[in-house]
Target: Transcriptional regulator, GntR family
Amino acid sequence: MGSPVYIQIHNQLRENIEGGKWQVGEKIPAERELAAEFGVSRMTLRQAIQTLVDEGVLERRVGSGTFVASRKVQEKMAGVTSFTDLMEGMGKVPSSKTISYHLTIPSQSEMEKLQLKGDEQVLRMERIRYGNGIPICYEVATIPAQLVADFSKEEVTTSYYRTLAERSHLYPGHAIQNVSATNATEKISSAVTPSCE
Model:
């Protein structure tokens, strides 16, 4: 059985980007134009684009369109180390500031990567992570809701991996981490402070 149509379009769009058809920061054609080019509905085309957005390949800008995102460093990690453990290993005091924490419906890409069913929700968590009170990164995490159903918000936002190990005896075996340097949005700029309480 062949791949779903939106995946085929996703693959072609990604190939175009990696091949240099559209450069970093360049706006890609409008959904209507791309849908006509591929001979599919705008809904199918939108699904393909959203998958690329979830992967960090494209980024949507309200009122402007969809653009090729800055290059990201993708690291496949075996024996996952949490941010808390990483900071402590460097002799720094880790802390976090939660910006957003809510249950939501996963995107198609997230459903596939997390192997979720259509009726399952995810926890979407956005945090600023600090080392010795200095902002290190802005993190967006998507977690299957069933894994944190019995955890308090404080347990999840303080150190999710550690809580998962101590409370559920579950240890992530591998992960794919996308790291990128980009200009801060107004939302991130207003949220980041020199220190974390």
Remarks:
- The first strand starts at residue 58 and ends at 61.
- Residues 51 and 59 are 11 Å apart (CA to CA).
